[in-house]
């Protein structure tokens, strides 16, 4: 059974701080890793994806992948109240399907 | 504008009724997916289709049916056999294959059984 685990939170950080969201996965054959943001009542929107070990930066967001330890993380720098949402981690072990974690709720307070 | 549309946004069903949720995309994507999301839970795959006239069951296909007669359309029917259909239904699409397996989501349909 392939699984993706996330702490449900909430993770509370002050405005301007770095938010660190973590995700672990069970299948070593996993190939692609995705972070989605989902506001309450809305559909998920893609933030970024990562395929290779190491860091990938896009604006205030950095995805970090460590395949040996089977975890992927998302860092949000200079967190804003508008970043308050649920962040979903998704993992693909082939090109057909994604397995989603249950999400981490992030709260950024002013 | 390219994107994925779902209709209706809200749907109310009486017990014993079949209902069909619409999903259309103009992204020219080959693959399309249907997910169900319950409160506080992750997305669970219902059905997916990688090519026209072909589809596969996901993890929770019982009580649901789909068709893929056109590349841009992937409707989902929630049948009376689905015992607990109240949920948020999300349609997604992707290019499929290689590094282009990123899935993009439509706005969703919220189904409530009365």
Structural features, described:
- The complex is a heterodimer of chains A (110) and B (114).
- Chain A is mainly β and 110 residues long.
- In chain A, 0% of the residues lie in helices and 55% in strands.
- Chain A is built from no helices and 11 strands.
- In chain A, strand 6 (54-58) and strand 7 (61-66) form a beta hairpin.
- Chain A is globular and about 40 Å long.
- The mean pLDDT of chain A is 93.
- Chain B has no helices and 11 strands.
- Chain B has strands spanning 4-7, 10-13, 19-25, 31-37, 43-51, 54-57, 64-66, 76-78, 87-94, 104-105, 109-113.
- In chain B, the strands form 2 sheets. In chain B, strands 2, 4, 5, 6, 9, 10 and 11 form a 7-stranded mixed sheet that branches. A 4-stranded antiparallel sheet of chain B has the order 1-3-8-7, with no helix packed on it.
- Chain B starts with a strand and ends with a strand.
- Chain B is 0% helix and 49% strand.
- Chain B is mainly beta and 114 residues long.
- In chain B, strand 5 and strand 6 form a beta hairpin.
- The interface between A and B is medium-sized, with 23 and 25 residues.
Q: What is the averaged pLDDT score of chain A?
A: 93
Query: Helicity range of the residues of chain B?
Result: under 10%
Give the helix tally of chain A.
0
| Quaternary structure classification | heterodimer
Instruction: Give me the Rg of chain A, rounded.
Output: 13 Å
Tell me the overall shape of chain A: globular
Q: Indicate the overall shape of chain B.
A: globular
β-strand number of chain A: 11
Strand-residue fraction of chain B?
Answer: over 45%
Assign the structural class of chain A, choosing from mainly alpha, mainly beta, alpha/beta, alpha+beta, or little secondary structure: mainly beta
Which percent range describes the beta-strand content of chain A? over 45%
In short:
With 110 residues, chain A is mainly β.
List the helices and strands and how they pair.
The complex is a heterodimer of chains A (110) and B (114).
Chain A: E1 4-5, E2 11-14, E3 19-25, E4 32-38, E5 45-50, E6 54-58, E7 61-66, E8 71-76, E9 85-92, E10 98-100, E11 104-109
Parallel strand pairs in A: 2-11
Antiparallel strand pairs in A: 1-3, 3-8, 4-5, 4-9, 6-7, 7-8, 9-10, 9-11
Chain B: E1 4-7, E2 10-13, E3 19-25, E4 31-37, E5 43-51, E6 54-57, E7 64-66, E8 76-78, E9 87-94, E10 104-105, E11 109-113
Parallel strand pairs in B: 2-11
Antiparallel strand pairs in B: 1-3, 3-8, 4-5, 4-9, 5-6, 7-8, 9-10, 9-11
